Amino acid sequence: MSGRLLRLVCTVAVAAGAVLAPLPAAAVPEPEPRERPVADLLTDLQRLYREAEEATETYNATEEKLKEKRAEVSRLDAALSKARLSLYDSRGAAGRLARQQYQHSSTDISPYVRLLLARDPQHALEQGHVIGQLARERAETVGRLTGTEHRADELARKARRALDDQLTLAARQKKNRDAVRGKLVGVEELLASLTAEQLTRLAEFEEKGVEKAQEELTASGALGEDARKPSREGETALRYARRQLGKPYEWGAEGPRTYDCSGLTSRAWAHAGTPIPRTSQEQWARLQRIPLKELRPGDLVIYFPEATHVAIYAGGGKVIEAPRTGERIRISPIAAHPLLGAVRPDDLPGARAPRHAGPAPA
After folding, report:
1. How many CB atoms lie within 10 A of CB 183?
2. How far apart are CA 230 and CA 20, in angstroms?
3. What is the pLDDT of residue 180?
4. pTM for this entry
5. CA 77/CA 159 separation, integer angstroms
């Protein structure tokens, strides 16, 4: 092409607003996205499960406080109703006394003057006794009325405060419930993003990790000899837990069809006649701590630094646990999760915190 023709083509292209782009080089295929290592996936999944369980235990703690506050509101309402009924009766008695006083004051001669003019001294004494009795009753009625008014006012203030606290706890409970659901959505999204092959490898990798942790724990001698017998209550709690094997995990559940981790342990011990705190954090904080070497069947094993998971020791280095969402109550190695410590519910009565009125249904 001549220089003149080349200049013409360029002029036309610029006039038309065209942009002359260089010819593309040979197409280079984009690299395929790199598959994340199974170890990283397991770390993320375990973190999400742990956060969900921590949120669940926070929800459970709020739920227990809300139950207590509801009971307090009901008790105060009943006491207030009783006080108001007593106040009504006292005001009725005070009204009768006022009418009597008015009637006596409207007569020409007061009862006291009539007493002085009485011909029969014995009759006069009896009249005096009656008048004294009436005066004492009047004073008692006025005092009772005043005291009942004060008590009714105080009960009304307490009832209002308790109701305000209940509403605050209810709002907190909803916030905690939403937090749990949000954490579980994260778990679901991660699992949904994985292929069947990845899920299989993930499960195998996790199982190998648990086996290794169990072997190391056993070899260390941290569990000591496993020949201890459970207490009578511990054996009853363990039998209850065994009967729940295979039932689904459900966050916030206390049975009898579904359980979360602390719902299972608290119900098992309530069934044994030894009520304990509802949440794993409270179980760790308020029950007697024991060395792992002293574990006996029925004791509780606490996991993670925040005490967000709990299981019941079954002996032989095994525990019964409600593991996590999507799984069922099962027997697991004691080293299935990072160990925090162990507690014994039936050796420290002062540490018990009743949460259930009676044995739970099997």
Report:
1. 21
2. 87
3. 80
4. 0.64
5. 7
Q: Which residues of 225-237 are buried (b: 16+ CB within 10 A; e: fewer)?
A: eeebebbebbebb
Between 164 and 126, the higher pLDDT residue:
164
What CATH number has the domain spanning 226-351? 3.90.1720.10
Q: Each residue of 329-342: pLDDT tens digit?
A: 999 999 999 999 99
Domain with CATH 3.90.1720.10 in the chain: 226-351
How far is 68 from 229, CA to CA, in rounded Å? Answer: 36
Nearest to 141 by CA among 107, 95, 180, 200: 95
Cα-based torsion angle of the residue sequence 50, 51, 54, 60 in order, rounded to the nearest 10 degrees: -120
Closest among 306, 146, 294 to 227, alpha carbons compared: 294
Q: For the domain bounded by 38-189, which CATH number is listed?
A: 1.10.287
Distance from C-alpha of 335 to C-alpha of 303, rounded to nearest angstrom: 9
Ranges in the chain annotated CATH 1.10.287:
38-189
**Is residue 135 scored above 80 in pLDDT?**
no
Q: How many CB atoms lie within 10 A of CB 217?
A: 17
For the packed helices 38-105 and 261-271, what is the interaxial angle rounded to 10 degrees?
60
Query: What is the full DSSP assignment across 127-165?
Result: HHHHHHHHHHHHHHHHHHHHHHHHHHHHHHHHHHHHHHH
